[in-house]
Automatic annotation (TrEMBL):
Superkingdom of the source species: Bacteria
Keyword Lipid biosynthesis: yes
A UniProt-annotated Pfam family: CTP_transf_1
InterPro entries (alphabetical): PC_trans
The protein's name: Phosphatidate cytidylyltransferase
Start-end of Low complexity biased regions: 20-38
Segments traversing the membrane: 109-127, 133-149, 161-179, 185-202, 214-234, 240-259, 280-299, 355-372
Region ranges (Disordered): 1-106
Species of the source: Streptomyces pseudovenezuelae
UniProt cross-references to PANTHER family, sorted A to Z: PHOSPHATIDATE CYTIDYLYLTRANSFERASE (PTHR46382)
Keywords of the record: Cell membrane, Lipid biosynthesis, Lipid metabolism, Membrane, Nucleotidyltransferase, Phospholipid biosynthesis, Phospholipid metabolism, Transferase, Transmembrane, Transmembrane helix
Amino acid sequence: MNDSSWGAPPQTGYWGPSDQGPVQGAAPAGPAYDAPEAQQTRPMPIVPDGPAYGGDQDDDQGAARLSGPLFRDESPQAQHYAAPQNPEPMPDAPQPAPRPQKKSAGRDLGAAIGVGVGLGAVIVASLFVVKAAFVGVIAVAVVVGLWELTSRLQERKGIKAPLVPLALGGAAMVVSGYVRGAEGAWVAMALTALAVLVWRMTEPPEGYLKDVTAGVFAAFYVPFLATFVAMMLTADDGPWRVLTFLVLTVVSDTGAYAVGWRFGRHKLAPRISPGKTREGLFGAVSFAMVAGALLMQFLIDDGTWWQGLLLGLAVAASATLGDLGESMIKRDLGIKDMGTLLPGHGGIMDRLDSLLPTAPVVWLLLVLFVGSG
C-alpha cells in the first residue's frame, strides 16, 4: 500500500528505507519505499537531528532505530520531545480470564454410535436366526483382529508373526470350540501353535524366537479367548447367554465412560492409560452389577438376581483389565488404535479388547451358576 491510498502525505517522523544506506548522524534519505510504486509517492521531509521519542542509537552504525507504528499521528513539535530517562513503568493491563474448555470425548461420537448400532444389528440377527451364522461372525472378527495385531507388530517392532497359520488355526479354533467344546478348543490351540513354529522355519533363523513367541501369544490372545463365546452358544439358552455377555461388557464400558467423563478426578493407571479414572471404574462396577441382576433374573434360565450382581462385578473387573492390557500393548507399540476399520472406534481389536478376557469369565460363572445346559 502506498502513501496516496491514505488520502494525505504521511506525517514527519517516519523513516523509510533508503537507496543509499544509513549515513552516520543523519536520517536516511531517498524514497519512502524501495518498491516501484514508490516513484509516485511524495518525498518524505528531512527530520532534524536529535533522538526521536522512544528511539535509541544503533551501536554498530550510529543510525537511529525505528520504533512505534508505521504512521504516527503526532504534531511536528511532539517529535522533538525527548523521552524521560527513567520513565515510570506502565501498570500491566488486566488479562481476560481464559474461557473454560468443554470436555471432549476424543472420538467422532456420531460415527461411533452409527457403527455400534450397525454391528449390534448384525450380531443380534445372526445370533437369534442361525447359531452357525454367529459362529461365522466370530471367526471373521478373529481373522481381522489377528491381521491388525500382526500388522502393528511388524510395523512398529519388526516382529513377523506368521499370519497364515494364525488365521487358519484361529478360525478352526472357534469352530472346534463350538462343535467339540473345551477339548476341541485346546487341541486346536496346540495345533495352531505347532503350525506357527513350523511355518516360521521357512525363513532365516534371525528373529525366529521373537516371531514364534508373538505368534503363540496372538493365537492365545485373540482366537482362543474368543472360542469361549462360541462355547456359550452351545447351551439351550445359548443366544441369551451370549447376549448377556455382550450387554454386560458394553454396559460396563459405557458406565466407565459416562461416570469417568463427568466426575473423573483420580487416575486409575496413569502410566498405562491416562484417561481412565477410579470414578470411571466405580461407574463400570455400578452399571454392570445392576445390569447383571436384571439380565440373570429375566434372561437366563434358573438365574437369580444375586448371581447377576456377582456376574456384573466380575465383568467390570475383567473388562477393565482387558482394556488396560491392550492399552499396555498399544503404548509399547506407540500407537493410539490398532486399526482404522471402524470409524469412531478404531479397529476390530479396539472393540475386542474388553470382550476377549471377559468371555472365559462369563462362560465359567454361567456354568457354575446354572450349568452348561
